[in-house]
Every structure is written in C-alpha cells, then in structure tokens.
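Our consortium's second objective concerns turning raw sequence data into structural hypotheses that experimental partners can test. To show how far this objective has progressed, the report includes one record in full. It was chosen at random from the queue rather than selected for favorable results. The single chain below, 298 residues long, was entered without modification.
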Amino acid sequence: MRFLIAGASGFLGQALRDHLAREGHHVVRLVRGEAVSADESRWDPYRNVLDQQVVENADVVVNLAGASFVKWPLTEAYKKTFIDSRVVTTRVLAEAIARSQRKPTFLAQNGTSFYGDRGDEVLTEASPAGNDGTFLNGITKQWQSATEPASEAGARVCVLRTSAVLHKSGGAFRPLYLIFKAGLGGPAGDGQQYFSTISRTDWLRAVTFLATHDESSGAYILSAPAPTTNEEFARELGRMLHRPTKLRVPGLPLRKVFPELSPELLSSVRTEPARLQEDGFVFEHPTLNSRLAAALTG
C-alpha cells in the first residue's frame, strides 16, 4: 500500500515509517523543508501549501504532526503552536482528501484526553466526550472535528485516541524513564488514578491494522486493555529498573507549577479498546509487565 505521512520525523512517525517499510509498504513523507528525494513532498499547512497529487496517489494518509507537549514553561504562544500543529494540519489534510477523486483512508492521531478525568468509569469509544475544562481535553475535540471534511466527503476515517505510548526512546515515557532510572520516581498524587498505556509495538501494529482493514472506521482507542493505576505503574517500573519508588509527587504543587501538564499525570482515564478488539486486533503486550519490558528493551 502507499502511505502518505505527516509528522514522519517525530517519535511515533519515525517508528511507523520504519515499521511500514519492513511490512513492504511504500511511504512518502510530508516535510516542511525542501524535498530531497522521491519519498518526500514539501508542504506548509499554515499557508495551505500541499501537492494535491501526493494525496491522490496515496491509499492511506496518516497525520501524526504535532508540537511536543514535553515543554516548560507552556507559554501562550507555544499553546497556539501546539494547537495549530494538530488542528490545522488535520484540517488541511482532511480537505485535500475531500477534494481527491480516490478518497484515501485518513488515520488521524488524537488522544485519550478526549474523555477527561473520569475516575473509575470504564471508558470505551461509546463513552461521551469529557468536559473537565483542561487544556488537552479541549484540544482533542477540536482535533477530531478537523477530520470532518474527509468523512463528510465519503472517505474512510479512523481517529486514533492514543494513550501514553511506552518506549524509552521518546514520547511522554522517556522523561519518566529517566526520572525513575535516577531513583527519583514515584506515584503522582494519591496514585489511585488510572493511567492508560500501550506499547509502541502494539501502537504500530494497531495503526497498520486499521490502515489495512477497510471495514474499520470511526474513533478507536489505542490503549492496552485492563489499565492499571498510576501507583501500580510506578511500582512496576521501579521494580523492573531496580529503583525505589518512595518519592510521591503531591498533587497540589504539581497543579500549581504545571497547570496544563499536571492533568496528564493526575487525571484518571480508564480506557478499554473495545472497538479495536471487536474488529479482531490482538495485543502483543496486554499486561503492564509486558509493555514495560518491551519499552525498556526495545
């Protein structure tokens, strides 16, 4: 199959590009600079610059573009950059797909922050959006709405509500890995909040599964089944790294110092990948132990 990927230089984008190549697929990368090979195409989503022909040629368009959230301080200017890097890029690609004759499949990255802080409630794709007023919760809804031009034009669209992807090489897990490896890790807040995760391997496999299964469409939770609490996660990571996990990060100071970032650690999001499993996907790393083992050794 022919894939067109935005955000192919990021943590997940590079991994997906390599994974698809190993699977025998052809990948064209959308790049902001000058294209230097036949496998690259220049675009500027903020000026609506995009070669319509590369969209026309694709079987699947994947948007993984997005500025990093692992940044502090989170200024107002950077918040706008963070939002635009997701919403604008998604809308530009969705509109290009809507204009195309072939209507390639659109896989659009998103997050489980869509559900907000929901305590012990089991959340599936059938659960309504949350409304907890947090920064990321608001963005995920804008992000999903930006896909509508493609779906309204008849394209197959899968919204990837992705939880924390575990791999020591990058993403939200890398700073946690470094903190715990230094012996400074521990639960955040009371630790009883659910912390949904997925191995990078299973994330790659799930994205490929959705890309190649024509019957799959709509929103999908990309998170392993039976999520654990933040305290269980901290305890298991510390055990596997042979480090103590006695240091508990109090919730109130965390909220005051990192008002936008703290909900990622303190909110309880207990997701279950109901639709993914109903469609026939089988997780390679269904347990926390297996996910962390893959993250630490892969």
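The partners drew two points from this record. The longest strand covers residues 105-111. The chain has twelve helices and 14 strands. Both points have been shared with the crystallography group to help prioritize constructs.
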